[in-house]
Design goal:
Blueprint lengths: L16 E4 L3 H12 L5 E4 L2 H10 L4 E5 L7 H11 L4 E6 L4 H9 L4 E4 L4 H30 L8 H13 L6 E4 L6 H10 L8 E5 L5 H9 E2 L11 E2 L1 H5 L3 E5 L6 H13 L1 E2 L8 E2 L3 E6 L3 H6 L5 H7 L2 E4 L10 H17 L7 E2 L1 H9 L5 H15 L4 E2 L1 H4 L8 H7 L3 H23 L4 H8 L3 H10 L4
């Protein structure tokens, strides 16, 4: 019996909505309806007020009435088109005509709704727009992240062996399957293959299959024809067609449903795709790299993954080691992250803190279940908690809360200095944790500590917390 495949659930709290209408009951009604998805929803009574809100805050979706007192919805649409990017604008009117709808869509509107509303239509549109925004944000963040990444750090034998395979497979065009636990660097390895290949000057297009439901994944991979579904206003190429001979990286391929696996298999066999709403197939050229954090052979045995597709995608397989098996690379990785995140968090004019020997020992002895990603997050936390000169075990937050014996006798030249360092470390953690618990309310934080507000502020000043 076929088992159901869990789908990604969008966190609608990340999608901010603005409703603009000069009728109070209409904007309140839309606010209540859309808020049922847990979206933060602001309301505005005029186009002029809406512009002020848009200038001072970020919104993802705007619902605006067309006919309003003062600035019209069409004027507001034109302002958004010329001054903002990435906003999905939905035009709302009780006087709908085909000419008005066409004009709005041609000038950048994402959708057009007439009164009285179909509540289900509005909910469906917000859901579709939410997935689209999520995908766009994911791609943007991923691009920023990988712009900062260095060549793969490999001072350990297991990763050096991986890089040898990368060097061998990169010049070929065979499909590659990368297996590895979360946080081991599957996408970084895929990019390394692309950068060492003969098509390095062509596109590298990546998509996380686990983050997108099948319905949206199909349009992203295969593209769609104008009018194929609500919101498909222009012909759009999918990733397979955009690649134009470059590399396509499909992460978490195990999350695809069996139905979609069949569609992908057909693409790999025929090297052709059929966009949604199109009657003709189109030839495509690409190099495929896939990745998974699950055992695909086991999924085949359980009937959750197609065996013929597995043979197609794993002509060459690369197994990434977990960080616990790469401990000789931890000092170099930690050092890189310390330098990288010091610049990111505090700028280039701040001195880079040093990892003490006991802090490094804590890193080397820790059980890294989250792999390199956990190490990355640990270093970020340490940079926030440390005194800007040295990183000690208690800054890391991975089990050691006090200064170790080695720390006291190896890092500090005298007992008194060691004691002062311990006091300073305790004050840093205690004051920061208290402020975090009270959301920055100093009066409430002082009460929790049993101190006066003035005494609490003196400690804040002493340890340089603003």
């Amino acid at each position: 019996m076929q088992k159901s495949i869990p789908h990604f659930t969008l966190n609608f709290r990340e999608i901010r909505v603005l409703v603009v209408d000069d009728q109070l009951d209409v904007r309140r009604g839309l606010q209540k309806l859309i808020s049922s998805l847990k979206c933060p929803v602001e309301i505005s009574a005029s186009g002029e007020e809406a512009i002020t809100l848009l200038q001072n805050d970020k919104y993802d979706i705007v619902f605006t009435d067309i006919k309003m007192t003062g600035m019209s919805g069409i004027d507001l649409l034109n302002w958004i088109t010329h001054h903002q990017t990435g906003i999905e604008v939905i035009m709302v009117t009780g006087f709908g005509t085909i000419e008005t709808a066409v004009h709005c869509l041609q000038n950048g509107a994402a959708h057009y709704i007439t009164k009285p509303f179909d509540n289900k239509e509005i909910i469906r549109f917000v859901e579709r727009a939410g997935y689209k925004i999520l995908l766009r944000n994911y791609a943007s963040e991923r691009s920023k992240r990988f712009d900062k990444l260095p060549a793969i750090i490999a001072e350990d034998l297991p990763m050096q062996q991986v890089l040898q395979i990368v060097d061998q497979v990169a010049p070929t065009s065979v499909p590659v399957l990368i297996e590895g636990a979360s946080g081991t660097g599957k996408e970084l390895t895929a990019r390394a293959i692309h950068e060492k290949s003969n098509i390095r000057d062509l596109q590298f297009l990546a998509i996380n299959c686990a983050a997108i439901p099948d319905t949206l994944l199909e349009s992203e991979l295969f593209g769609y024809k104008k009018g194929a579904f609500t919101g498909a206003h222009v012909d759009t190429k999918g990733i397979f067609e955009q690649a134009c001979g470059g590399t396509i990286f499909l992460d978490e391929i195990s999350s695809m449903s069996l139905n979609f696996q069949s569609k992908l298999l057909r693409v790999l066999e025929d090297k052709s795709i059929r966009p949604l709403g199109c009657q003709e197939s189109r030839k495509v050229e690409f190099r495929l790299i896939t990745a998974t954090n699950k055992d695909l052979n086991q999924l085949v045995g359980e009937g959750q993954f197609r065996e013929d597709l597995l043979y197609r995608i794993k002509v060459m397989k690369i197994k990434l080691p977990i960080l616990n098996d790469r401990r000789s690379s931890i000092p170099a990785l930690a050092d890189y992250f310390v330098h990288q995140f010091t610049r990111d968090l505090f700028g280039t004019k701040v001195n880079t803190p040093k990892l003490t020997q006991s802090a490094l020992s804590s890193l080397l002895n820790h059980d890294w279940r989250g792999n390199v990603r956990e190490l990355e997050n640990t270093i970020q936390r340490a940079l926030v908690m440390c005194d800007r000169e040295k990183i000690i075990p208690s800054d890391l937050g991975i089990g050691a809360s006090d200064l170790s014996r080695d720390e006291i006798f190896s890092e500090f030249p005298s007992y008194e200095e060691g004691k002062q360092q311990a006091i300073s470390s305790f004050q840093q953690q205690y004051i920061r944790n208290t402020l975090e618990r009270t959301n920055g309310n100093i009066t409430h934080a002082a009460e929790l500590c049993g101190l006066t507000r003035a005494a609490f502020q003196r400690i804040m000043k002493k340890i340089d917390i603003r």
